[in-house]
Amino acid sequence: MSNGYMGKILWINLSEETFKEEQLPDETYRQYLGGYGLAAKLIYENMPSKTDALGSNALFGFFPGLLTGTVAPLTGRFMVAGKSPLTGTWGDSNCGGYFGPEIRKCGYDAIIIKGMASSPKYITIINDDKQILDASDLWGLDVVQTEEKLTEKHGKVQVMSIGQSGEKLSLISGIVNDKARIAGRSGFGAVMGSKKLKAIVLKGNKAITVADKEALLNLTKEYNEGISSSKGMIVGWKTFGTTMANTYCAQIGDTPIKNWGGTVNEDFPMEIINKISGMEINKYRQKPYGCFSCPVQCGSIMKVPELGLDETHRPEYETCATFGHLVLNNDLMSLFTLNDLCNRAGIDTISTGATVAFAIECYENGILSKEDTDGLELTWGNSSAIIELVKKIINREGFGDILADGSKIASEKIGKGSSKYAMHSMGQELGMHSPKVYNSLGASFAFDPTPGRHTTATLDMYIRGPLMKPNGLFEGFELPRKYKRPGDDRSEAEKLVCGIFQATNCVGLCEFMYNFLKYPLLELIKAIVGWDMSIDELVKAGLRIQTLRHSFSLREGIDVINNKLPERTVDVDYLEDYKGYCKNMGWNPENAYPTKETLTDLNLNFVIKDLY
Ligand code: SF4
């Protein structure tokens, strides 16, 4: 019996209505850890290239991190992964709550779905009993209704489901657990919808054995006490969650304003932004909540009597920025409404808000008329029109149908030069942080295996966050001395940040951990799994994972290196940055293909035949 992980995964074939367990060798875990590392290995090897992401042969799955399900602090995260129907590249989406740990309690390190049901279904895995059941009475419900109905029927279970947007195959839809924790990016709601899979219901009774329980408890206690006794930023994080950034990021010029074309001073001044600050939002705070095994608990349940909302969730910064700053909307109530609407429908707030911003700019510039928008006056900051438009997007109704697959596809349908207002990378709308502030975001927005994402490894966000300490966050991890001054070659530092980021993601750690205290990563891996891992081995596992995710996109025929970002979003030579990074990664800087030597060195020999 392994320590830390369960040693097996579950394959579910919806066409054949079968379940099949597969044991994995220990070496696979040591090389790919868990989360999207394990996903990249399994999906790359089992899904042929050019598979239609919304077809029956597409695979996608749910992958807890290596340490997920244990008490190790901040490790409750899991990932949904597969081919993104939105970008055509590798896709993954990180999520929290309690669903990931429950996969482990059911005895698995991954649940992978293939095939396609002929009518709406949901899957239950309850204490070893596995079934595929009729979901026709759930089809059409939002995720909160779905979760309530399934909990009523099956008792205390963990549910992950799609809402109306996933059912309608919106390419910007996600999958939701804990009523509002969404794996929002990459379009996996549409993948699940295409398989007519409404929900997965889990309840497990398995325990995770660990190598050294006493050490695990001591390390956890010490870290959690450090969080409890901390002041400053950590208290702010516990109190306001990510909404702390609503004003801070705007002040430093990081939050995109007016569809990336405006500025705080000219278009959305701080006195207006203060109306949607974390402080204002927190006036409606009821109680904190968070993910499994997290001492921070950065989420919050809200009550908004003005809207008749007795229980809703605090909007995250990204949501406030796309529906606030990006569209010049300072109507606080509309942010609560939009957040609630999107969560319930299971649609990504970043892509939805950014696509609304695209539509507004088209309207303001005469590309769209009131007839095109079903009578909506899509002017900057018109919160009631924005709410009506989002309802239409969710239901694919009228003009909403044109926008429901994101701004790139919408601009192709609208034409008339509208593509210049679509702020995306390979079809995915950009996260709400600016490469003009965090320069290295330019290359990661453009070229990461999951393009357009602000949560990917990127040096400048790692070193310039309010509390981040590049060296010393993990024992033995150090960036090279020179990377800060203009003219320094930063590519070695970029590579190291990439490696450690992939690794921490794949053990299940929340990225917010990078804002907090020194984290006993290697000690926890030893206590839980029993591995004596060096930081170099861990970073190398991260580089292997990144190279495989990237190779997946190359095998799909994606011309990664020639991707371009919308001009107004970036003011650095991100291609030059990327070429330096490629060189250090052991990838050919001219075409971004990993060299054969690199693939061999990373034990990725099975990729060589696909790329050469
Ligand atoms: S910090 Fe927030 S998002 Fe991260 S694990 Fe804790 S509760 Fe979840």
Question: Which terms summarize this structure?
Answer:
about 15% strand; Aldehyde Ferredoxin Oxidoreductase Protein, subunit A, domain 2; 6-stranded mixed beta sheet; Aldehyde Ferredoxin Oxidoreductase,  A, domain 1; alpha+beta; binds iron/sulfur cluster; 26 helices
In short:
With 612 residues, this protein is an alpha+beta fold. Helices cover 39% and strands 13% of the residues.
Write a structural description.
- With 612 residues, the chain is α+β, with helices and mostly antiparallel strands.
- Among the domains are: 8-203, Aldehyde Ferredoxin Oxidoreductase,  A, domain 1; 240-422, Aldehyde Ferredoxin Oxidoreductase Protein, subunit A, domain 2 (Orthogonal Bundle).
- It is 39% helix and 13% strand.
- The strands form 4 sheets. Strands 2-1-6-3-4-5 form a 6-stranded mixed beta sheet, sandwiched between helices. A 6-stranded mixed beta sheet has the order 8-7-12-9-10-11, sandwiched between helices. The protein has a 3-stranded antiparallel beta sheet with strand order 13-14-15.
- Helix 13 runs parallel beside helix 15 (349-364).
- The longest helix is centred in the last third of the chain and has 21 residues, at 535-555.
- The chain is globular and about 65 Å long.
- Bound molecules: iron/sulfur cluster.
